[in-house]
Structures
1.
Amino acid sequence: MSTTTVIKSDVANPALASEGKKKIEWAARNMPVLAQIKDRFAKEKPFTGFRIAACMHVTTETANLMLALKAGGADIALCASNPLSTQDDTAAALVYEYGISVFARNAVDRDGYYKHLNSALDIKPQLVFDDGCDLVNVLHTSRTELIEGVMAGCEETTTGVIRLSQMAKDGALKFPMIAVNDTDTKHMFDNRYGTGQSTFDAIFRATNTLIAGKIVVVAGFGYCGKGVAERAKGLGAEVIVTEIDPTKALDALMQGFRVMPMTKAAAIGDLFITVTGNRDVLRDEHFRQMKDGAILANSGHFDIEIDVAWLEKNAKVKNSKMRHQTDDM
Amino acid sequence: MSTTTVIKSDVANPALASEGKKKIEWAARNMPVLAQIKDRFAKEKPFTGFRIAACMHVTTETANLMLALKAGGADIALCASNPLSTQDDTAAALVYEYGISVFARNAVDRDGYYKHLNSALDIKPQLVFDDGCDLVNVLHTSRTELIEGVMAGCEETTTGVIRLSQMAKDGALKFPMIAVNDTDTKHMFDNRYGTGQSTFDAIFRATNTLIAGKIVVVAGFGYCGKGVAERAKGLGAEVIVTEIDPTKALDALMQGFRVMPMTKAAAIGDLFITVTGNRDVLRDEHFRQMKDGAILANSGHFDIEIDVAWLEKNAKVKNSKMRHQTDDM
Amino acid sequence: MSTTTVIKSDVANPALASEGKKKIEWAARNMPVLAQIKDRFAKEKPFTGFRIAACMHVTTETANLMLALKAGGADIALCASNPLSTQDDTAAALVYEYGISVFARNAVDRDGYYKHLNSALDIKPQLVFDDGCDLVNVLHTSRTELIEGVMAGCEETTTGVIRLSQMAKDGALKFPMIAVNDTDTKHMFDNRYGTGQSTFDAIFRATNTLIAGKIVVVAGFGYCGKGVAERAKGLGAEVIVTEIDPTKALDALMQGFRVMPMTKAAAIGDLFITVTGNRDVLRDEHFRQMKDGAILANSGHFDIEIDVAWLEKNAKVKNSKMRHQTDDM
Amino acid sequence: MSTTTVIKSDVANPALASEGKKKIEWAARNMPVLAQIKDRFAKEKPFTGFRIAACMHVTTETANLMLALKAGGADIALCASNPLSTQDDTAAALVYEYGISVFARNAVDRDGYYKHLNSALDIKPQLVFDDGCDLVNVLHTSRTELIEGVMAGCEETTTGVIRLSQMAKDGALKFPMIAVNDTDTKHMFDNRYGTGQSTFDAIFRATNTLIAGKIVVVAGFGYCGKGVAERAKGLGAEVIVTEIDPTKALDALMQGFRVMPMTKAAAIGDLFITVTGNRDVLRDEHFRQMKDGAILANSGHFDIEIDVAWLEKNAKVKNSKMRHQTDDM
């Protein structure tokens, strides 16, 4: 497809567009249901005349979703729900191979992040797609002039649904939002099997560590935590689960996991994975007990579950970038 | 088949013969390889003129082996290698339905046990089948007059093979013995999968206890111990392995089991299963640390791995036979 | 406790009371939460003046529940929700050791079953405990004169809840019923881990068959089916799941189980376990495809999931009672 | 350490030395036993005056082994046993940070590969370390003048040991070789747990594919194949094993894997992993049956188990480099 010069965008490297296109096509192979929907959209054009602002992980899978919406007639502006997951080649391909507005650069700072959200909102959306509720939050705070034009939206993840439920309860939510996460086929599969595997994919790449024989501590036994714990077990680890909900904790125990509070697990674990949705799950009191060489990883939606600021401040030595996305403190 | 009155035997209850026959036939369904061998034996009659003394678990599976040998022309005398495993209905059926000499009664005492071994040896065997080396041991001590007539034998289990290897090393073994246990299809399958399941079958019957969520301590990570540990994990337990061989201990660790010495595991476990082949694996120092209500079970060949005498002596209360084969001390 | 002669009852063998008492005490060891509740009931006596008719599995666990209710002041009449699960020693102990009315004999026929339900209802209950909805059903059909006196009740199992929901929807249910099965700690644990293990406990006893290496077909992937499938896998089987709900079927697939319709699985399986709640899950068309020697077992609430009548009619040979509760057709 | 200009080497990019050093240090954290050996070597200097030619995977782990040997006084020349596994940053670090001769560039062709082996041999080794037997083979064919100087060597992998055993049997092997692979701590752990995880690490990176719910066919059930099959199961796949050794095949079956010949598995699998040591395990007759989109991966020592030449010749379309190291044909 020829590129269209009027496409508004902010991506890191247009030269990656061709490589990104290959990856988007590769991902499409594993998305047969979306392919069927895209075919139907192409015939029925249900989104003709609709402007959509989407704030999602800018990955090859999201790219295929955008292509399905575009096939359905939508006019789309996409920004990143998490700058660390943005694939610059995918972003470039969406703009320069497929003609979709994208505002996303891998690892942009906080200012860049919000600038991109605002750029996406400039499309004056009738529909919003959110993943973590930041886009909806910006709409309800600094871009309230756009609310009147918004018909509805949907939210992807547990954390976002919790924020929205609170807004709805407070009467603050100004348009209906569909909680995609409540769908069985979302939380049963994406959270459990998707997050389960991708967490270890990331840990393999970052740390090059053998999981078999390690003690892996999984904080949280929701759908995501269950998936992470199952994969850890399947990779040969001894798995400890920490969980404040007593029924979930009991469920973990009945599946053969060790269950204990983090204050006790901290001294035992080799690898810690947080996936709770809460702040400072790993903090001062835990860091002080940990073995030298313990590896910490967060798989929750926001980068707030490990008190990295404390580590930055108290580390004797910091060896940044020992490996990709891995600091040694 | 009509019974033959001249069959020498000592079994508990001839009236159980019919029930035992049904069970022997049922077991035959899961022994297709033996069935093929039996057919060949029936044609080739390789054991015509041979007298065999067999000291084995008197179960339906052994019964089918005896029937195959008999089909091959052998004259057989069978005694029990462990009185606790003797099935009285099977023993009765072998005598009264199939005409094979059997000397075995469930739960006979030590004197009865040795009397049965001697009765079987009275056949003046050319071949001996042993399971634990007791029959061979009697031959080499109190029945040495029979040794000259023995051509060879075979031994079933790890414990027996260890005893025989020592005898051979000392020059004390007077005839060749084949170590059946060294066969891959014996120790890989019988020990691992057979003992693994049957140990829990016995624990279910005796204790009626849910394994999921329990802490199960498996002493020993040989073929049998591995099987027991795998099944415990598969039933939802958290599994601790104790093992003095460092390579086996490391293997257990790499499979995700917790590994520690029994002195540490004693205080933690809910259910202890010994399967080491050694004496007093669980003893005074461990009993003193255990939780009230801990369940102890032995799956090793001899009933020596748990120091039951200490328990008998030190128990405040003994509730015998709370359930079948289960004492509460 | 001394027995009271005026206790109304119909049990098989009063002489088993002492043995039953030991088993009830043994079971109490694994019921620490109930023990706490019983202590509270003993102090607060919340059921003083209340008559309870309970229709449940007459097992040692139910016995402990009855003792807790009695400690709370209740006047109780217990009958069996399934004659095949009735433990005659437990029934005897409840009557002759603990003074509770019990109407239950193992393996009574249909008439005996309903006679027992009616005997229990003769207590004129204010509260009813049901497991499968048969007691509630009798109340609403032949014992309607008692309905006015019933304040409320509770129902234990999925099948019963489904029946009650239908009655409620039709406006036919005359008093409120609490669906115990809807509690997380019921269906997450009892159904999944309890049924999972006890199904194999029963299969071990009945068939003495090694599960490792077998192809086990589990019909239904609800909480119970999930538990059965997990245990089958943990015992070393290759597991096939059949399930008509597409989301549950997908979940089974994502957990590594093979998923296919029974029409295809019938020809492949070695062991079939039905746990769907539906009628004739295994029937004519499936039986005709099965391997000789295939083993069929039902773990659903009612004995209707396998079309046994067809087997009775069409079997060339029937060897009843090859082993306890196992027929060979 | 300052670099020494006289170090002979051929590496791709000296500028990567600093990055490589960080990774070597990171890997050292997980090699505590080697650290102890290195300390001892540093004191005892057992290799002073010895020249070692090592042909191994040029990875961070090998780098730490080289540093331990160097600490022991050895003079070392390292070349790559497989150009595809060479880490250019590690190679650069060994030369420019640690002063060790390295001849290795990622993805060199066949000529470059043998040139590197010969460059390493130019050190005139007294000891040789091999991984796959290529270095020993060159010594016995084109560099026979060096054999007299070689005292002994060691070989790392199953494939190399098989080649050496044949040479020894034929009387062709001119110096003793230690089969490292025969050590329990090598084949029990490296092959099973190491290859198990690293195979999926590679597949994750190359294909970005969810394993849960996929049908994974593992060709070969040796130590490596067992590890791959276990990890596939632990990641949620349905696993099929193909294996020509009947005892190993039976073992796979008893662990719950499906076992069948590749001619049957070819039509079923989503992902095929060869780990047999044999040539053309996947070939014409299998490719023709496979589903469109099937993924093929080799984890055996040599790149000969999949008949890639046939694919190159018969593919309708070839999309090279869809993702790193992944071609689409």
Note: The two ends of chain B are 47 Å apart (CA to CA).
2.
Amino acid sequence: MSFSNKIAIGAGVAAPILVLAADPAAAAVSAETRYVLNTFSFLVHGFLVMWMAAGFAMLESGLVRTKNTATICLKNIALYSVAGLLYYAIGYSLMYVDVDQVIGSFSLLYNPSDAELALLNAEEATDELVAPVVENGYAVMSDWFFQMVFVATAASIVSGTLAERIKVWPFLIFVVVLTAVIYPIQGAWTWGGGWLSQLGFSDFAGSTIVHSVGGWAALTGAIILGARRGKYGPGGRVNPMPGANLPLATLGTFILWFGWFGFNGGSQLALGSAADATAMAIVYVNTNLGAAAGVVAAMALSQAIYKKIDLTMTLNGAIAGLVSITAGPDLQNHLLAIVIGGVGGCLVVVAVPLLDKLKIDDVVGAIPAHLVAGIWGTLAVAIFGGGDLVAQITGIVAIGAFVSLASAVLWLALKATMGIRVSAEHEDLGLDMAELGMEAYPEFGRGSRAI
Amino acid sequence: MSFSNKIAIGAGVAAPILVLAADPAAAAVSAETRYVLNTFSFLVHGFLVMWMAAGFAMLESGLVRTKNTATICLKNIALYSVAGLLYYAIGYSLMYVDVDQVIGSFSLLYNPSDAELALLNAEEATDELVAPVVENGYAVMSDWFFQMVFVATAASIVSGTLAERIKVWPFLIFVVVLTAVIYPIQGAWTWGGGWLSQLGFSDFAGSTIVHSVGGWAALTGAIILGARRGKYGPGGRVNPMPGANLPLATLGTFILWFGWFGFNGGSQLALGSAADATAMAIVYVNTNLGAAAGVVAAMALSQAIYKKIDLTMTLNGAIAGLVSITAGPDLQNHLLAIVIGGVGGCLVVVAVPLLDKLKIDDVVGAIPAHLVAGIWGTLAVAIFGGGDLVAQITGIVAIGAFVSLASAVLWLALKATMGIRVSAEHEDLGLDMAELGMEAYPEFGRGSRAI
Amino acid sequence: MSFSNKIAIGAGVAAPILVLAADPAAAAVSAETRYVLNTFSFLVHGFLVMWMAAGFAMLESGLVRTKNTATICLKNIALYSVAGLLYYAIGYSLMYVDVDQVIGSFSLLYNPSDAELALLNAEEATDELVAPVVENGYAVMSDWFFQMVFVATAASIVSGTLAERIKVWPFLIFVVVLTAVIYPIQGAWTWGGGWLSQLGFSDFAGSTIVHSVGGWAALTGAIILGARRGKYGPGGRVNPMPGANLPLATLGTFILWFGWFGFNGGSQLALGSAADATAMAIVYVNTNLGAAAGVVAAMALSQAIYKKIDLTMTLNGAIAGLVSITAGPDLQNHLLAIVIGGVGGCLVVVAVPLLDKLKIDDVVGAIPAHLVAGIWGTLAVAIFGGGDLVAQITGIVAIGAFVSLASAVLWLALKATMGIRVSAEHEDLGLDMAELGMEAYPEFGRGSRAI
């Protein structure tokens, strides 16, 4: 038993003794309180996940070169906006409303329920008006908000891999389709109650459904788009193109870690009972331990292999630890979270040079951190968490195949029509001057117009 | 109906079935629970709004030139501090305590209620002690905290517009008066229950009462202070003075967006019932959609007009979308939030060059984003939300006239006494070396002492 | 009485009238609701404190020179990770489990309680399963999470002082021992219910137990490690080595301030009653006022002494104000918070040059802000808050002696074995190239490989 006497000192009031009332019903959470708590959990955890959009923006801003920094900032705020609008217009309904095995409803827009509107527009909140609202368990739009920030996360992953050579508008059109159609359809299979959930596929907060989906879309795009000019030299030489601002990349990683408590914690989907609150605490702890293990593993392995600690690898180790634990952060033995996150951190150190060997140019390391670790985390649910290995593999393969295929078709269509890659001149000049006509840091460093 | 089966997979416990107890009272939120939830809502949403102070600091740091960056950092942390101290000393009481149509109480300091102190200092929390506390609906100081971060927001808006040429101490004296007197008096008219609220003026979270107030104070200051040296050349030429660090400006915008869930969501002022939680979820969604629409509208319009996407304009589009939806984020049709935010984003693109034509030098674009969009959002409540147009216009004009007049008197008094503008030599040298004797980035770029 | 009518306008529903039910039990917070609220408070406030790790990373990144920036980023994410792993493995049990006056249990790892696991793994949440869980007052792991982020804070403080010359791995080994053993043992004395708590030593959220502990470890390290090369010249000359990125330092300070609402607010340790919620609101307000007063005091004093406002001093003034109020943020007279924080801000301005006179090289000013202000804040509890002065002094001295001695032994052992300081060549080159083989800002400024 833990013992903490801060309260007696702090509050100046005798700590209330927790007694259960004689009547068990009086000791329980009332239905309306539960509704409020569940709703508030979606909102609080939702704003944390929304904040991850800033994390991706900073991580990517720090890992590109100065001449492409303003563009990556623009793309990140734009993709978050586009994702939110499209998920409102189409995506959410496709994913969650009346899902029939593989797809939900094509209804446009998504709004509060009639019962909610009746309550809000009444003079008085009578029991008759409150009851049907409360019965849903949470406010309808709070769930929308929480799910929306997830689709934005998937879109954010794509942005970093393709940085420094993709055109802005075609990229945003890809985001439109990804968030309106591709992500929601595969999401319906599991979280919408479709065929994968019935098969027993288990992905608590989205190692596969969010992170690998972003990773597959990014990988397909990287292959079709090609590497940055000069990245891969003759004879297998890989030219380093170091990120321009590592403190920003570090900040971005911390933001992601912070936001991940919302990502995983909120995916408990409820807070209104002792069981839910207890489970949520476990999720928080596993999330933190997985990330911490990813950091230490990536540091140690990069020291062992390269005789230096690589900061970028370490940051991606944190992310990989987080992605790895995302499929099963409800594991009740916390030691397993350390194992799972640590393996995730090692996978990054192994996968980054492997991608370079394949000449797949992933500017920020998103494919190792989100796709590879996402697959690992989803398998780990079967290995350590009692999940069904066949169901897990089926989910990984089915979602991977669908997203890769759909993304490839879309990338190729964009390439054939408006083109997806800037000209060689524009790439050398940098996207900031070419596409935006401005510089991210006009007074710093070389070649800036201010000097 | 949305369907989500994450919980059954996640929690490992059968999802609790939400049944309403036979006795409706047992199903409702108890008075003490409601008190706790309302209080916690003020604290959580309050810390989000406090975080907006960092957002303004980063936005403005990114949009000024390097030689004035340390000064803008200093001004932002100082103004937040000054605002908090003065709102504690005088402001809150003037705005909320015993408001008599136009002004509240002149009592100094603001402290917990006697009932609260009696409860906290008791040996045991008896029903007799709890009841009078709970009756207030929320902890007295939680409301103070939430209102305090709003006044700080108004002060933050002024700082950006006047950057790069105003002296530090006179600026802070302006903040003293703004947060102790000017803001509270006009706030009393509506949120304190004064004459504007009785007229039916409606401003949910402060498009006018916070954002336009900051905007009017900034506009008055910009006119009296004059433009930066060299900003406007002969023949109507406008010399660009690009911001030195656009990733920081992007970060600042993301912080503001994140914090705005507190700004608008917390302005529901209660969380302790199904109706409040439902309304709060709607507010979150509208806030996000308004901002997203502002981004997309500003991007599209700047592309159409200038054939380039302007990142700064896009960031201000997000802010304008947020400001626009702030007067009516409780609209029950989310499509309207998209319309309102989108118009806000367009207004920025139009208003920025217009100010330049008038030779009003607004360094960060705060006047378009906060004042113009604030007026629009307040009108939109009447246009789309059923508010009274006459009341809305009355509120906009009355608050605008009062704040502009009071600010002008104050700026002119400061100008006549201690002076508000640094010397031409100091302006050319930069405020950092002139007023602080230090550089923000001593090792970067041109002219730094480190090179 | 404060009056706010936002709700009537906003929600569109008549504001629920708060009536206490005839039956007092029905008006109170149920035991299960209290459990949920207490747990959620630990999680929300815990994530805020976790975010302080990013604050330290940014503060320190901004205050070191560019050539050591990537290393300080690495150390900050690594120390947070190491602290979490070790506090899980050993530290928490030593501090909180079965504490016998001076030390807790040596049991390894820390996991959910049997009662919690029984509830989570049941088919249905029966009263018999819920009751023993709820009796604990909060989810076991939520408390772990909240306490873990505190130990990480103590470790973060050490990192900044020793920047720019310490080797990475020995530093991390120090963090291992600090977070696994040193911090937990002294923490057990008070928060674990040991001898200091029985003596009446009072430290609400850790002015001494967290901040001074970090400060003593840093001070001991600074003395043993020695100053940076060239910092102190002949004749008492102090060579300024200005921080490379002051906006980042400002951001870091804002993050710390933001996170401190979790640090102090969460240390109420409960949210599930009117008394707790009321007390928590008071804590938030004092925290903010203490920081604000620290800022204004540091600004004014640095203006008076140096005729310039020093930004770095001002930022440390905020931190000192926060540290000062941390021992007693539950004071019921808010004016005292202003006094306590203001004195803290002044102490920074005095202590920084004093350390330089003693040739103790504290790169970021952590010793004045955390150690000196921590001692002051702990004394202030006796001076203003009714605490026992002898108990306070006993706590300060006992903890200071223990931590200094243990740290000194550890630093000397590390120095004798693997060495703690980089070579003079590596120090001149910068730790980033020497230890990491990379640069934080490869395209900016002088001497970078990109130019």
Note: Chain C touches chain B through 93 residues (CB under 8 Å).
